[in-house]
Design a protein that fits this description.
Number of helices: 16
Strand content: 15-25%
Structural class: alpha+beta
Number of strands: 16
Radius of gyration: 31 Å
Shape: elongated
Helix content: 40-55%
Length: about 425
């Protein structure tokens, strides 16, 4: 019998195993009861050994043992206290108040919810509980988070991700990029909604910087709600405009050649495209690589491949070096006057008269002030936010989406912040 206590993890000094059996479904049923004969009254704190009656046994889901499912059949008694003349149920601190799951299963559910690679349905299945219990546990954890953030850090970041909420296609995420923390998630990113949300913030004038992409409503919200903050365009987003301009030149040229032409095959090859998209210093031009040519693999230097690509068109040649020059300005902004260099770069784009880069230069020109703000501090970027968004995609994908935004929000905040507080009292809190 001692082996059962060790395998199941029960305290033999407090719990007594009455019987162990396996039912027709293969679940091991362990009947347990309180080992103590004298119980302290929960009202007057005096000991009593007078048993009033026995309650109906309660089944509680327990942790698996040795690869088998285990259920506890808990026998409880009610005692009569002669000192205060009250009747109470003996406490056995092994399961929740409703008795359906044990405390250890409850802890395991919380640990499983922290793993963003596990879907809600999978957590329900491995813990042998209902979906309502998992959702209740999740909202139980999340209920301690206030409805509005009243005190914001000095630096905050805005972004959005696809959520398909009732309010719109995108949900809004508010982060603290310096301390790596998700502050809140809203069901929509509309300007009016954000302004209303931030009116509850007490220290709006203490916010020094807002980092985001080049989305006009975010800029307007910053100017209205955070008058002392500078707006910072994230480097990843404005660099992407330049990369896209170069790629659009490649696509335009690719369409002008037949599918059997060498030019088409060179521009279509993904490995070749990588040479265009990377910054010059990220490529080792003198390391031989393998390329597919004329039905077999051949050795080639990246520099030779790039020369073949750039000879296809002057637009592609000039576009490539415009991209490289822009990235030089970004990467060496401390050694030069970035504002002056950006203006020269914009003028050069107009001079070359490449449609894709004229459009990109127009965007850079409109947001130049906020791009330059990104050079003030290396920490002022949305790298943390983009990483969070990638994990949110995993959370959504493994569960095939979330119909209930409240559950989705709670899961995200718990995964990234790990808050454990609060109590859900009824099913209406899940709606």
């Amino acid at each position: 019998m001692k082996d059962y206590y060790l395998l199941i993890g029960l305290n033999s000094k407090e719990i007594k195993i009455l019987d162990v059996r396996q039912n027709t479904k293969g679940v091991i049923e362990v009947e347990i009861g309180n080992r103590k004969n004298k119980i302290r009254c929960i009202y007057c704190n005096k000991f009593t050994s007078s048993v009033h009656d026995k309650l109906k046994p309660v089944r509680s889901v327990y942790l698996d043992a040795c690869g088998s499912n285990v259920d506890l059949i808990i026998h409880k008694k009610r005692y009569h206290c002669y000192n205060c003349n009250k009747i109470f149920t003996e406490p056995i601190n092994i399961n929740t108040n409703n008795g359906s799951i044990s405390n250890k299963v409850k802890i395991k559910i919380r640990k499983d919810l922290l793993n963003y690679n596990l879907s809600m349905n999978y957590i329900v299945k491995i813990n042998r509980v209902s979906k309502y219990i998992v959702e209740k546990e999740l909202l139980d954890i999340d209920s301690g988070i206030p409805k509005y953030i009243k005190n914001l850090p000095a630096v905050i970041s805005f972004d959005e991700f696809k959520a398909d909420t009732k309010a719109g296609k995108y949900a809004f995420i508010l982060n603290d990029p310096i301390h790596k923390k998700v502050l809140d998630i809203l069901p929509e990113r509309k300007k009016e909604c954000l302004i209303q949300y931030f009116t509850y913030c007490k220290n709006r004038h203490s916010v020094k910087a807002v980092i985001s992409d080049m989305y006009e409503p975010y800029l307007l919200v910053t100017q209205i709600m955070f008058p002392k903050a500078i707006y910072i365009a994230d480097q990843f987003h404005y660099t992407r405009y330049i990369m896209k301009a170069l790629d659009n030149i490649r696509i335009r040229l690719q369409k002008t050649y037949g599918e059997n032409s060498n030019e088409y095959k060179i521009l279509k090859n993904k490995k070749n495209i990588g040479l265009l998209r990377k910054y010059g210093k990220e490529v080792d031009w003198w390391v031989i690589t393998k390329r597919y040519k004329n039905g077999h693999m051949v050795d080639a230097l990246p520099s030779e491949i790039l020369d073949k690509i750039l000879k296809i068109s002057p637009d592609l040649y000039n576009g490539y070096y415009l991209k490289e020059e822009f990235l030089d300005i970004i990467n060496h902004n401390k050694d030069i006057n970035p504002e002056e260099q950006l203006q020269k770069w914009i003028s050069k784009c107009i001079l070359y008269n490449i449609p894709e880069f004229i459009e990109a230069a127009g965007t850079i020109s409109r947001w130049k002030e906020y791009i330059i703000n990104s050079f003030l501090d290396e920490r002022y970027n949305n790298g943390f936010t983009e990483g969070i968004n990638n994990k949110i995609k995993v959370i959504k994908r493994v569960s095939f989406g979330y119909k209930n935004f409240k559950i989705f929000r709670a899961r995200i905040l718990y995964v990234f912040n790990g808050k454990i507080s609060g109590t859900i009292k009824n099913k209406n809190d899940l709606k």
